[in-house]
Design a protein that fits this description.
By secondary structure, this protein is of the alpha+beta class. The protein has helices at residues 54-60, 111-118, 139-145, 156-161, 167-174, and strands at 12-16, 29-36, 39-44, 48-53, 73-76, 80-89, 99-100, 106-108, 126-136, 149-153. Helix content is 19%, strand content 32%. It is globular and about 45 Å long.
């Protein structure tokens, strides 16, 4: 019987290996916000929607906001629940439905935080994300053992400071890995 991982990856960044066959996850970086014996849930943090901006989302839910919101990107968080909006943010965490991922990062998907953001009274740094990624019981562990993913500690710098198109490369570099030399053909000792 092959040994599987038993450690939770909640609060970890999941970095796609270059040869991951699913185009949705190509060069993706995901934040795992739930992981237990039943499976895992995460948000891709480096795939910007090609057309939508925050202004579109706020208009859709009928919350007034300034035209500056046309400059705030929307991220494609994964192929599941694509009608759901998640706000990945730093403190404060006092919103309805906030799920603390780490002591410094949380996810909220309730209207109170959306109203606060529209009035510039919400968290200073946040990402607006639609959809999420999900793995069934044991699926993520099997994919990691098959060299589909690397994982590392969360990095607020990668999430909030690095441009989306550079997050995959930067996540690898932070781990001490040259992305140009990655191969999924490595084995396990």
């Amino acid at each position: 019987m092959k040994e599987t991982m038993h450690e939770s990856l909640k609060g970890q960044l999941l970095i796609a290996m270059p040869e991951l066959p699913d185009p949705f996850f190509f060069h993706s970086v995901s934040l795992i916000f739930e992981h237990d014996k039943n499976g895992a849930v995460g948000l891709i943090i480096n795939k910007e929607h090609p057309e939508l901006t925050a202004k579109h989302i706020f208009n859709e839910i009928k919350i007034e906001c300034s035209n500056e919101f046309n400059k705030i990107p929307i991220y494609l968080g994964g192929p599941v629940n694509q009608g759901r909006v998640y706000i990945l943010h730093e403190k404060p965490f006092g919103w309805k439905g906030t799920l603390e991922v780490t002591p410094d990062i949380a996810i909220t998907n309730t209207l109170d935080i959306m109203y606060a953001i529209a009035k510039n009274e919400g968290p200073e740094r946040f990402l607006l994300i639609i959809g999420n990624a999900g793995w069934t019981q044991g699926q993520l562990e099997k994919e990691i053992m098959a060299n589909a993913w690397l994982h590392t500690s969360i990095s607020e710098e990668i999430i909030f400071d690095i441009p989306a198109k550079k997050r995959w490369e930067k996540a690898n570099l932070i781990m001490g890995i040259n992305p140009g030399q990655l191969s999924s053909a490595i084995g396990h000792a």
